[in-house]
Amino acid sequence: MSRGILTVVSGFSGAGKGTLMKELLAQYDNYALSISCTTRQPREGEVDGKHYFFKTKEEFETMIAENGFLEHAQYVGNYYGTPKAYVEEMLDQGKDVILEIEIQGALNVRNIMPDALLLFVTPPSAEELERRLVHRGTEEMDVIRSRMNRAVEESEFMDRYDYLVINDDLQVCVKELHELIQAQHNRASNRTDMIDKMKKELKIRKENRE
Ligand code: 5GP
């Protein structure tokens, strides 16, 4: 069985990545969503081990020291990191693994795993982004402001991604995401098995003709 595709999904906080991921996993098999560790406080309704593994700063730093993360970064004053073991295990099982992480982490993954697919999710406008953040209603105004400011910085890196995914209509966006990821399976660098098979078969036919 061929190894799974590693996809990194980033986007402005409030772009709707969470909902997108939920829909993607509900509609298609073969995806595994990595659960990150974070030192931020759980939001209302968030469950430890489901949305995140909530850690203290000390616990997180121990995991860094033990090389337990594929990547980690700081975001608005908190640590976030992708536990390495789960990702490797799922890829080996042929699952397409999704990391929903911010930009620093995404660019680190690009360095470690150059074959990873990097997708950036954005709402159609800045006004819409702010509207979604306000409507989420889980954050204070100063947090919303800091996330909007962070978005200004993050927009500088949008062109480092392989594809933009514009999240206007959710269902259209889910389908687009799925198709982009599945197309990766046929990238020549991911199909060395097929390339080898064709080379071998062509050679045999040539020999038989001679
Ligand atoms: P939130 O606090 O809104 O759940 O997440 C804040 C940001 O951290 C989001 O952009 C989210 O994608 C990112 N994030 C979540 N998990 C990780 C992770 O494991 N590594 C990195 N680098 N970023 C993460």
SSE blueprint and pairings:
Blueprint: E1 6-11, H1 17-27, E2 31-33, E3 37-38, E4 53-54, H2 57-65, E5 69-75, E6 78-83, H3 84-92, E7 96-100, H4 103-112, E8 117-122, H5 126-136, H6 141-154, E9 163-166, H7 170-184, H8 192-209
Parallel strand pairs: 1-7, 1-8, 2-7, 3-4, 8-9
Antiparallel strand pairs: 3-6, 5-6
Helix pairs in contact: 1-7
Bound molecules: guanosine-5'-monophosphate.
Can you give the helix content as a percent range?
Answer: 40-55%
What distance separates the N and C termini? 35 Å
Tell me the radius of gyration: 20 Å
Largest sheet: 5 strands, parallel
The kinds of small molecule bound in this structure are: guanosine-5'-monophosphate
Give the DSSP E fraction (strand runs of 2 or more residues): 15-25%
What structural class do helix, strand and pairing data support? alpha/beta
The spatial strand order of the largest sheet comes to 2-7-1-8-9
Provide mean pLDDT, rounded. 94
Low-confidence blocks of residues: none
Secondary-structure element order, N to C: EHEEEHEEHEHEHHEHH
General form: globular
What's the tally of helices? 8
The total of beta strands comes to 9
Model description:
The protein has 210 residues and is of the alpha/beta class. 46% of the residues lie in helices and 20% in strands. It has a five-stranded parallel β-sheet, sandwiched between helices. Helix 1 (17-27) crosses helix 7 (170-184). The structure holds guanosine-5'-monophosphate. The site of guanosine-5'-monophosphate has 14 residues, from strand 5, strand 6 and helix 4.
